[in-house]
Design goal:
The protein is α/β, with parallel strands linked by helices. Helix content is 33%, strand content 16%. It is built from 11 helices and 13 strands. A 7-stranded parallel sheet has the order 3-2-1-4-5-7-11, sandwiched between helices. A two-stranded parallel sheet has the order 6-13. α3 links the parallel β4 and β5.
Length: 316
Amino acid sequence: MTRELVKSERRLLVIGGGYTGVRLARAARQQGMAVKLTSRQPRPDAGGLAWLPFNSDPEALVLPPAAALADTTDVVVSVPPEPGLGDPVLRLLGPMLRELPLQWLGYLSTTGVYGNTGGAWVDETAPTPARAGRSLLRLEAEQAWLASGLPVQLFRLPAIYGPGRSPFAALRAGQSRLIHKPGQVFSRVHVDDIVGCLLHCLNLPLEQRPPVVNVADDCPCPSSETLGYAAHLLGQTLPPMERYDTIAASMSPMARSFWAENRRASNQLLRQSLGYVLRYPSYREGYRACLAEEGAAGAAEGRGGGQSPRSPGSAT
């Protein structure tokens, strides 16, 4: 994560208390920011963070009180758009956000907006022919945020992994699948590099913030490669290889959409122009850190393990 201390007068609102949101809120508080976090229900793993309710379900609508948002200077939105309704945060909280003294608003999107490039590299200038479905909804949400008049910066994320979202638990349980699709690669990023990037960009002067930033590591590669390394770290054998074309029909629509796109997300803008130093330049460093943290958590709580990394465009 960024080593710079966030100035104490900055007050951060994290809208969406999911995996990335909670991790970000904790890190920002450790660096001296006043932080509030929204979610439908209080998060028991939020470590005493100030919590605000937010539920966009029309049948159970709950909005945070405007007074609780007063003086917020920075916002991160990690809530996905809703089919037929658009972005729930902009729709429901937009008027309140426009009344705040905002200096920066980070919106977490997906590299899925670039569509399938056949494995070619994409940077922030690439076309965005997002396919119908989750990626198109994200692209429409991006456009709405950029047109909002708020100080918005978009962050496009690939597959997210980290402690509790790594391959180790599934490997131990014998639930992993070694799937091979010739020429297929995926980009990915450790959750702590998302957090570090957000805090880094929050601290940049307005004129140094590009409107769109890809947040990915240096090492796009096949999922079979990352699973092989995870098995090596555990000293376990890999499951039998399955060819994608023989099992695709049995996959869920979401899994097939994940495998239907093939691209490499460039992080050159983030690293070279913005000066962010990746904490985990590849899955190798990241997986070793995940294994250590998951082991420490298991020892402390009497449990271990984790979940698989999220696919691009999934909730953060």
